[in-house]
Amino acid sequence: MPVTFESRIEARFRELSEQHRKGLIIYLTAGDPTLEATAELVAAIDRGGADVIELGVPFSDPLADGPVIQRASERALKAGTTLRKILKALPHWRAAVRAPMVLFTYYNPILQYGLEAFARDAGAAGADGVLAVDLTPEEADDYIAALHGHKLDTVFLASPTSSDERLARVGKASTGFLYQVSRMGVTGERDRLAASLGELIERTRRFTRLPLAVGFGISTPEQVRAVQSLADAAVIGSAVVHAIEEKYPKGGARAVEEFVRWLKAGSEANSA
Questions:
Q1: Which residue among 109, 112, 245, 252 is least packed, with the fewest CB closer than 10 Å?
Q2: Is 3 within the bounds of a domain?
């Protein structure tokens, strides 16, 4: 089904392009440490300069997540966080931020919720897109149709080992932006970026005109600058979740906001 709407995500990347700027996408786990805290944190991350916010849906078996995000999911689940509760709270969070918001989830919670019901409720709650990390484009026709029917972008992952055929499928299935995984393995902070990242991005660009956002292993302003010199946006997850784990109990949401501002310094350095 062809996309006939312009999402807030697409509009945001168009705005960045017109301003000759690169994007900063920030991930946090919804419900960590509580849903009430998430309300404060998304507003703080927005004030800190995030161009897009990814809201992770906690899952009991997060195969793609490293220990930092695993701990966040455990805390959120212990606090009683569910996909249904996230969608109930989302309109309140949405009203407090300007950044588009993407639900980052495994596919099982969507299936348990019901695909059409999820698409309807996520769209009504103010979500702008969804990334189902373990859903392949080959098996996503019904998912794509349901989400596009409620004006939600479908973001898919491209991995370093994706074949040309898979990259073409990922590019065709994605809207809003395409998430380029920078390295093999799980999420987590790294000392340096993959040496092959430039070649990887160049290869992926052959199969899509969408903005490319690169994530996994990015944790400093210097790494943000390096990624943005090659791609359209940098995605930072584990470093922010770690900051929430360490800084929020002592300094509250303001401490996390300042951490995002520190990361944003890398992004501003790439402005024309």
A1: 112
A2: no
